Amino acid sequence: MIIGYDLNFDFNHSDLNVKLKILKNDFNSSNWQAIIKPLDFKYDSSALYFEISILNNLDSSNNSLIIGHHFFNDENDKTGLYIFSYCSKKNHFVNLPNFTFYTLIISNYPNSDNYGISPFKHISKISKLLNFIKFNSLKSNPKFISLYSTKNKDGPIFIKQKTSEIKIKCINVNCNQDDRICKSNKFKKEDNLKYAFLDPKDPN
After folding, report:
1. Nearest-angstrom CA–CA distance, 74 and 95
2. Helical H runs in the chain?
3. Would you state the pLDDT for residue 26?
4. Rounded to the nearest 5°, which phi and psi values hold at 52?
5. Using CA atoms in the order 123, 126, 129, 134, what is the torsion angle rounded to 10 degrees?
6. pLDDT digit string, tens, across residues 129-144
7. What is the pLDDT, as a whole number, of residue 121?
8. Quick one: CA torsion of 106, 36, 1, 99, rounded to 10 degrees?
9. For 16-65, how does the pLDDT look when each residue is reduced to its tens digit (9 = 90+)?
10. Non-local CB neighbours of 125 within 8 Å, separated by 6+ positions
């Protein structure tokens, strides 16, 4: 599977000792709008986790689906995965389809300025009321970003990247169904949330 490419990537560079690992998880469709799944590895603060979801079939029934997710640390200090499904046409959370989830684990990346994990910070009380949280101004425009929670207490969260900032948002959905995830769709505690970023650069 090709996740991306970099024409300037130098495998022979003397300082380059990057370790890459890919994990694959298959998910079958069900009556669940969200799934919480423990992954088979212990949390490593020196590694970054990035991801991609691939639908088994793309047709008119799922061409408006968004599969969102974030990683979290469980009580045993292992990494877990929260996945949910949202339909942009219906503006509502829907049942998850059949899909495959790939996790790319990167460690020993040489340039710390373009690689790491940072916390969220509010810019104002107004932004908090609007369910937005804004990051510090970005020095660069990372090619890869990923959302982390230090605890398994957060519901579905969307992440949005612009040129100089990254935002997260909860979507408020009016729903009279008590068993739906939109009933608990809110941040439990903003301090739990962090983001991982990677902006590959030419090492020369």
Report:
1. 24
2. 125-129
3. 93
4. -150, 140
5. -20
6. 444 444 444 556 778 8
7. 66
8. -170
9. 577 888 999 999 877 888 888 888 778 777 788 999 999 998 888 788 89
10. none
